[in-house]
Amino acid sequence: MSTPETSRFVRLRVELVVEIDNEDAVTKAALERIGDDPELPADEQAHAESAVTEDTAEALAYLVDPFDLVSEVPGVELVQASWSSERIDYDPDSPEWDLDDDDVAEDEDEEASAAVG
After folding, report:
1. How far apart are CA 41 and CA 19, in angstroms?
2. Which of 32, 84, 36 is nearest to 60 (CA)?
3. Which residues contact 102 (CB under 8 A, 6 or more apart)?
4. Which of 12, 26, 103, 113 has the greatest CB tally within 10 Å of its CB?
5. How far apart are CA 103 and CA 67, in angstroms?
6. CA-CA distance, 71 to 77, in Å (whole number)?
7. What is the maximum span of the chain, computed from C-alpha positions, in angstroms?
8. Are the beta carbons of 48 and 34 closer than 8 angstroms?
9. Dihedral-angle region of residue 9 (phi above 0 means left; psi in -120 to 50 means alpha; beta otherwise)
10. What is the DSSP string of 29-68?
């Protein structure tokens, strides 16, 4: 439900960990997307090609588009997006990879703010 005091804007946070099992395929797909972008100036195209060739994480970031995540959702318009990628050491059994921890910490912060205010 929406009331006059409720903002129409929602921050959607998504964190993904993916395993790349074919770096060449990711790099090739990114280079194809760069080559198919008619609005990309030549100097920016050269820079993008260099970045995705040197780093598969950059290639993946070039292929993932937040607009694609919400473009088919009715009643939603993407206002702003930012994303990045980085290589990480991943251990699915490690407690630091429990995705619910972030939610719990934020809930506790909100409860503490509500109690103070």
Report:
1. 31
2. 84
3. none
4. 26
5. 24
6. 7
7. 55
8. yes
9. beta
10. HHHHHHHT-TTS-HHHHHHHHHHHHH-HHHHHHHH--HHH
Q: What is the pLDDT of residues 57-107, one digit of tens each?
A: 999 999 998 888 899 999 999 999 988 888 988 888 888 877 665 555 555
Closest CA to 46 of 34, 55, 28: 34
> pTM (2 decimals)?
0.69
Q: What percent of the chain has pLDDT above 90?
A: 53
d(CA 76, CA 69): 11
Per domain, the residue ranges of the chain are 23-91
- Per-residue pLDDT at 102: 53
Residue type, 32: E
For residue 34, give the nearest of 45, 47, 23, 26 by alpha carbon. 45
Return d(Cα 49, Cα 110) in angstroms, integer. 43
Q: Which two tokens stand for residue 20?
A: 């790349």
Mean pLDDT of all residues belonging to the chain = 85
